[in-house]
Write a structure and sequence with these properties.
Length: about 150
């Protein structure tokens, strides 16, 4: 382990590693999605609306993306019959997006393929669930502190 001289230096190193992890994870997710005729953007939008119907704007906020880019993906998914768009009783300008049976099936296939791949990668890492949960707790604490 490198010699770290200050909490700020440790923080910068952690953030750099988080970005690297996100990049590696994104690249493998892109490969998994491509093999199933999807994109990561479509995967993310399907995931965002799978739990409960929400507007494209709400999905965009959850994903940290621009509403317009999420709306484009929603439009594509709708054209292919993977999501439906229904009136929103709370806001007629923001229809609710939800996956169709085909959308749920596509999402399930992506998740299953990802889990197989990630399980192998995690086994090879030698990390236990407790290790990952401790890292997550550290990251969640930092997120809460930065949001204040």
């Amino acid at each position: 382990m490198d010699s770290v001289t200050s909490p700020m230096e440790a923080y910068r190193l952690l953030v750099a590693d988080v970005y690297e992890l996100a990049g590696v994870s994104r690249r493998t997710a892109e490969e998994i999605a491509r093999q199933r005729g999807q994109t990561v953007a479509r995967w993310h939008v399907l995931s965002a609306v799978a739990e409960e119907p929400c507007s494209a704007a709400a999905a965009a906020r959850r994903l940290g993306l621009a509403r317009q880019s999420v709306q484009r993906v929603v439009d594509q998914l709708q054209e292919e019959g993977l999501v439906t768009v229904a009136p929103n009783p709370r806001d007629r300008r923001a229809p609710l997006v939800s996956p169709t049976a085909g959308g749920r099936q596509a999402l399930a296939a992506l998740v299953a393929a990802s889990e197989v791949r990630r399980a192998g990668e995690l086994r090879a890492s030698g990390l236990a669930a407790e290790d990952l949960l401790a890292a997550r707790e550290t990251l969640r604490s930092l997120i809460c502190a930065l949001r204040r």
